Amino acid sequence: MSRAYLATVLVAVCAGAVHAQPELAPLTTDPHLQPRMAPVAARVDPLLDSAPILAKLTQAPVEEEIRISADIGLPVGVRLQVRLYESRFWAEFGAGVWWIAPYVSTALRYDLHMYEGRRNTIALRPSISVTYIPLTRSGFGAGTDCEVIWQHQFHKNLVTDLGFRIGLSAFYAGKSWWPVPIATFVFAIQF
User: Fold this and answer.
1) Which of 180, 165, 153 is nearest to 124 (CA)?
2) Fewer CB within 10 Å: C terminus or N terminus of the chain?
């Protein structure tokens, strides 16, 4: 054998012996008597060892308990909506003017969220209602409508709604029912 071959084998064996030293058990369990070694920096591989970073997101729009809604259109009026038992159902009470006739109404409305973001929500709110107009013979009517609403949370104490409401009510006058359209712009504040 050549001297170069023996030198190469000897270097390889020595290099392997340095890196392959077996770890010996300590002679004592007292940490003060064990040999102290410098801490070894851990190797970090960004592809294998990275942990996902979770960002703290702001809360979705606050689910409030009371809404005051102003309607501009047909009819013009104000409505008070109260959430029923922390559900998506709302009891609604309203008053205003339908053309030239005053009215009062009550409704059951359902809040259906189509999109929910951190501060914005798009909602459909269908309802069934009963309305009383004192200037007609019978005075009572029934109807259905749907609100299309963009809800925005400015901060945790101010939530506003902006959208429109369309639907149809029917009133009994004399011997027949008369359809009356509902078409309003809606602005509401929740608290």
Assistant:
1) 165
2) N
